Amino acid sequence: MANHGFLAVLPVLALSVALSGHPWAGSGLLLLVLVRVWTLHHRPTWLVTLLLLGLFGGYWLWRDHQLTQRQLPFDVARTMTATLRVQPDAVAVRGAMYYFVGQNSQTGERLTVRGVAKSAAELQTLQHLTRPTLWQVSGQVQGILPATNFNQFDGAAYWRHRGIVNTLKLTSVTHRTAAPLRWWGWFSDWWHGWRAWLIHYCERLPGALRVYALGLLPGAKAAETMTELQGMQRLGLLHLFAISGMHVALLLTAVEWVCVHLRIQREHWEWGMLLGLPAYFILAGSGSGVLRACLMRGVQLTGKRCQRPISTLDAWSMALLIGVFVNPGLLFELGSQLSYGLSLGLILLREESRAWRQGGLTLLGLPSLLTGVFQWHSLTLLANWAVVPLFPVLILPLTLVGTVLHPWLPVISRGCAWALQQFDAGLAWFARLPGNVPFGKPAWWVAWLWLAGTWWLFTRPPQHRRKWLIGLLASYGLVYGAIHLPLSGEVTYFDVGQGDSILIREPFNRRVSLIDTGGRLGFRQPDWVPKTPPSYAALRTNINYLKSRGLDHVDDLYLTHHDADHIGDLLAFLQELHVKRLLVPAGMEAEPAWQQKLAGKLPPVVPIKTGQALPLLVRHPDHAAPAENENSLALQGTFGGLNFLFMGDLDQAGERKMLAADAQLRTDVLKLGHHGSKTASAPEFIAQLRPRWAIISAGRQNRYGHPNAETLATLREQNVPAVSTQTSGMIRYTYRGAQGYWQTKLKGAHES
């Protein structure tokens, strides 16, 4: 019956695929699974399958209809005044910024909310909430912005899967009061309060212990998590801990061991554990890995108490059903894929030898990792073999001992923190060894075929697997080659908000050039704002995209001038990628201010000026000067049968210099200077260039009013169509030879 129960789940999964992003693939998969269930000739399984399809499909369609009616446009903000109910553990503070998910008390709608603390007292209040509160607020509400760059994390889809479609940016908070406990939600409120207390407690722990305790106990993330756990992340080990739910199973096993050795009657502690699992689910952060682990243990305990034992596979199947019922997009999220996929692998491969089981788990997790993070370390298998056994005997005990004893024996707590830090340092050293493979993002259907091929491999007898394994690994090699030696090139304008960043990649990746990195303009914070580790938007936008294309280097990185919205994320590029050389406008190489921020990590810096071909032709500047807007680089090149001109932040005076230097200057595609400001794009400049398209890179609802109405009027008068990252997201021209086509992330594809 275990296999029949497992098969009854598969049609529901296929339906979730069809309704959550891949309608044709999901429908085809659903048809195949239904045919397989029918061939079983097992009437109960067939009836259960149809019942589940009806229940889940009906609920998902109704839910999607409700969310669609509630969703606001993401590009139009509306003023909103409301009373929000906020759980104390929902508020995350980073510097003066804070974020949470709140519920509108009038409508019951849940929204993501972001705001800025106005004083040290307000910040202190936010950091010490311990019970639900009611906030009287005003702000701007709009739909959640979807991914605006290709291969970027899609926050709108993530939150929609959780029943949230709108976001609120606070402009004022007039009052905060303690919320009355709801009689129907007192249990949830109580445990959210305890989780808030646990988070505050863990945040006071020293060093690496704070990172581990926050991640493994309340399921929260410390500000320095990605810095502290960099080695673990590069080796692909993070999912084995906080994401996969391994720590949950170990903690529950430890509780069981204590109860047995205290001679508590099995019936009592099993009922106690069963009733305590919902509380622990809230206390541990309610993540997908925690949900799976708690559900599996709860299902099996319920079966035991009802004298109807439930197999591990059936428990997994029921946990998955509940998981996709709560989150229809569960199969499209990396954490859920790894948690459910690897736990299923442990169940089905339990009879295999250790070597085959470890290899099988690696192959099962690899498609998800490549699709989600685009790289894999060849030492991951060795790291798993060495580190995973240490988790229950070293990492978790050190975390628990250091956390529990901190108030009474802080010296032991500091010792545990030191030991965990040494462990992290060892992993970081190991991760720096040669072997990291910048694979790139495979197509989704390729990842599915790899998963199917892996399961097929393990249905073969061990003595017959070698040829199938060689074939599977060969398919990875072929896909790697296709990603790294593409037949097409591209010119891509990233959506980096209020900034610039442009990729020029030639066919077969012969040369990879980048013009500017993007970045945020910095504003001095009051002294009461706590310092936080630097964050770079490039890691989510242009660096993320380069890695998704299998690129780990940039041959030429042009910095048009020294403004932060153009070069602010340079340090992230130097840390994450191999940059062979920087090309800057003549005079910028002598400026110490921007170099000092990089702490001596600069590759060779080449000053350039008019007339040089690198291979982009430099059109401006013609002399060395400080790298202000008026000295910005202007670059020109031809790709895919079109001529492109990139203007940086060059002003109208610089444009007139370019016209004077070349009276025959023309271009097909013009990236407007200074984000479409009226200080650039002079009418005579546009008239002479006669571009077929104008590209504008500017932030949504930016404080500068870019692009300016005068600039847009100039383009209309010259009959030049304009495309902006504000409304279209990433703008990409993909070409082969002298032919190509345009794509925008938010508005589809167009032929050139």
Automatic annotation (TrEMBL):
<dbReference type="InterPro" id="IPR036866">
    <property type="entry name" value="RibonucZ/Hydroxyglut_hydro"/>
</dbReference>
<dbReference type="InterPro" id="IPR001279">
    <property type="entry name" value="Metallo-B-lactamas"/>
</dbReference>
<keyword id="KW-1003">Cell membrane</keyword>
<feature type="transmembrane region" description="Helical">
    <location>
        <begin position="275"/>
        <end position="295"/>
    </location>
</feature>
<keyword id="KW-0812">Transmembrane</keyword>
<keyword id="KW-1133">Transmembrane helix</keyword>
<feature type="transmembrane region" description="Helical">
    <location>
        <begin position="355"/>
        <end position="374"/>
    </location>
</feature>
<dbReference type="InterPro" id="IPR025405">
    <property type="entry name" value="DUF4131"/>
</dbReference>
<dbReference type="InterPro" id="IPR004797">
    <property type="entry name" value="Competence_ComEC/Rec2"/>
</dbReference>
<feature type="transmembrane region" description="Helical">
    <location>
        <begin position="44"/>
        <end position="62"/>
    </location>
</feature>
<feature type="transmembrane region" description="Helical">
    <location>
        <begin position="315"/>
        <end position="335"/>
    </location>
</feature>
<keyword id="KW-0472">Membrane</keyword>
<dbReference type="GO" id="GO:0030420">
    <property type="term" value="P:establishment of competence for transformation"/>
</dbReference>
<dbReference type="InterPro" id="IPR035681">
    <property type="entry name" value="ComA-like_MBL"/>
</dbReference>
<dbReference type="GO" id="GO:0005886">
    <property type="term" value="C:plasma membrane"/>
</dbReference>
<feature type="transmembrane region" description="Helical">
    <location>
        <begin position="442"/>
        <end position="459"/>
    </location>
</feature>
<feature type="transmembrane region" description="Helical">
    <location>
        <begin position="235"/>
        <end position="255"/>
    </location>
</feature>
<dbReference type="InterPro" id="IPR052159">
    <property type="entry name" value="Competence_DNA_uptake"/>
</dbReference>
<feature type="transmembrane region" description="Helical">
    <location>
        <begin position="468"/>
        <end position="487"/>
    </location>
</feature>
<dbReference type="Pfam" id="PF03772">
    <property type="entry name" value="Competence"/>
</dbReference>
<dbReference type="Pfam" id="PF00753">
    <property type="entry name" value="Lactamase_B"/>
</dbReference>
<protein>
    <submittedName>
        <fullName>DNA internalization-related competence protein ComEC/Rec2</fullName>
    </submittedName>
</protein>
<dbReference type="InterPro" id="IPR004477">
    <property type="entry name" value="ComEC_N"/>
</dbReference>
<feature type="transmembrane region" description="Helical">
    <location>
        <begin position="381"/>
        <end position="405"/>
    </location>
</feature>
<feature type="domain" description="Metallo-beta-lactamase">
    <location>
        <begin position="498"/>
        <end position="700"/>
    </location>
</feature>
<dbReference type="Pfam" id="PF13567">
    <property type="entry name" value="DUF4131"/>
</dbReference>
